[in-house]
Amino acid sequence: MSGALTFGLDLGGTKCLGVACRDGEVLAQYRAATDTDGPGEVIDLLVDVTNQLRATAGDPGAIGVGAPGLVTSEGTLARAPNLPGVHDLALRRRLADAVGVEVVVENDAAAAAWAEFSKGAAAAARSMLAVTLGTGVGGGIVLDGQLVRGAHGFAAEIGHVIVREGGRPCVCGKRGCFEAYASGSALGRLARERLGLSGEQVTAAAVRGDAAALVVLGEYAGEVALGLGSLIEILDPEMVVISGGLVEVGDVLLGPVRSALPEFVYSWPHRPPTPLVAAQLGERAGAIGAALLAAERA
Fold this sequence. Notes:
5-stranded mixed beta sheet; single chain; alpha/beta
């Protein structure tokens, strides 16, 4: 409902960021550390963030939650690798019972994609692919103005698409996942192997123009482009929006990814351009997207 007050809660492995929104405009926010042990403490954390926002902004018409991992169509968090002990958690039902408000639960990267599509970098588009390069790799897809959820709610788990058979081990238990090569953690591994530095040190040096660091960042950009190329082939999006902490370095990273993409997309010179752009909403994108999705139920 347009004009309704809604809350968006972005639940992560290290923090939970909550926002109170009206039409996607943030009126208040609250942040709490995710120091939880099991499903009960996760619900308690979300209730606490909700109550803090209520004290500041009033009662919401609905609450949206962006949760990491596999979120079913019914709002159950089936698996969350970054939340120890959490699986098959009926998050939507349990939080709604606890706060007495309608609750919507979506994958966190998908919620962030919806925010960028609705209010951010892709606001002028009808279709887009969103890719989050953080500790892991997340994704969200919007086609013809609709968020793509899949038959069970598990669509766009792009970080766990296999890009190399038998490749590097991934936190999910498989080998060769896109995440094992394109995440911030993967950049850190590459930086240590090539230069004995951390990922943060390499990106900082690359921004300063250090030649060796630029080579490492270029190698990493090639890994990102490899995975993006396959996704562009499948989805043919109007644009690709890249988010996550790494995007803060701007074209030092995005430039080499753009340069490498043609190698991995069939007949690139004969296709309409697919712009690769940085996200605009920063760390609040997931929470804003969750609030926007909740507004559809308010």
